[in-house]
Amino acid sequence: xxxxxxxxxxxxxxxxSMAHVPGDTVASVRDxxxxxxxxxxxxxxxxxxxxxxxxxxxxxxxxxGATLALIPPVSGG
Amino acid sequence: xxxxxxxxxxxxxxxxxxxxxDEAGAVDLFLGVVRNENKGRAVDHLVYDAxxxxxxxxxxxxxxxxxxxxxxxDSAVFHRTGRLEIGETSLLVAVSxxxxxxxxxxxxxxxxxxxxRVPVWxxxxxxxxxxxxxxxxxxxxxxxxxSMRGR
Lengths: 77, 151
Known about the structure:
Number of domains of chain B: 1
Distance between the termini of chain A: 25 Å
CATH topology of chain A: Ubiquitin-like (UB roll)
Strand order of the largest sheet of chain B: 1-6-8-2
CATH architecture of chain A: Roll
CATH class of chain A: Alpha Beta
Strand content of chain A: 5-15%
Oligomer: heterodimer
Structural class of chain B: alpha+beta
Strand content of chain B: 35-45%
Number of strands of chain B: 10
Strand order of the largest sheet of chain A: 2-1-3
CATH architecture of chain B: Alpha-Beta Complex
Order of helices and strands of chain A: HHEEE
Number of domains of chain A: 1
Helix content of chain A: 10-25%
């Protein structure tokens, strides 16, 4: 799992490994993360997700070994 | 199609050279430049964070879509990361086509889409503090409740 920008600062991490659970989706992994790191909750309304570098919605599967990135509102340019 | 996500300085000539062709009568070049103020507050410098591999992938997909959509000859997109001082170039977009109209439209579209989708973030650093900026045009903010937008 990858964190960036404001979220990386808040969690104090840029990377975190989590055990895979059969049937995992973006939402199920996110919910386990929020349980372990409640400070993530305030970000959830504007958070987007990417599974293996592609934007993915809440119901998208997260296969074993996948990289889930948590993406706060981008501000490049 | 030249795509770069790099902590090195961006050279506009590299982007121009990448898209220029003998059959292209027009090249449009856009530079995003670090400004010394935002919302009336003096900015000392910016720090850009990125998810480099996904940023490159997303920029390449957008550059390809622009070529398709606007019948371009070629396109190039560069984004800088790390610390940038006032006046430095953070974003470069270059597009070429037979005629100018397509290049203006494509350049505008590409810059908007980069700001909307590419996983890059800027932190403003002031004399007395700093803040990660949430892009008002980002896909994430589009989905946010109206009350959270325009902060």
